[in-house]
Write a structure and sequence with these properties.
With 78 residues, the protein is mostly helical. It has one domain. Helices cover 85% and strands 0% of the residues. The protein has 4 helices and no strands. Helix 1 crosses helix 4, helix 2 runs antiparallel to helix 3 and helix 2 packs antiparallel against helix 4. The protein is rod-shaped.
Length: 78
């Protein structure tokens, strides 16, 4: 049901997989930036990086679900 809504909204599996890789890169960049700030702000910056680091599996799983939906749609029209 949710995959149907996301598919009709224009999202495709490859888009979410690319977003997953992008959020990994963002996490690494935020983590590196956390090492450059002073000690008072470092904890908050590291927590931000860890929070973003939780996104990739979510995007990847949703992308896989949409790809399975796309495959079912293709088989239905054959």
């Amino acid at each position: 049901m949710l995959t149907d809504v996301l598919y009709r909204a224009g999202l495709r599996g490859w888009m979410l997989h690319a977003t997953s890789f992008g959020s990994i890169a963002l996490c690494v960049l935020l983590w590196q930036r956390a090492k450059t700030v002073d000690q008072d702000e470092r904890g908050n910056a590291e927590r931000r990086a860890l929070f973003v680091g939780l996104w990739p599996p979510t995007f990847w799983i949703i992308g896989d679900s949409i790809e399975r939906y796309e495959d079912r749609q293709r088989r239905r029209w054959r």
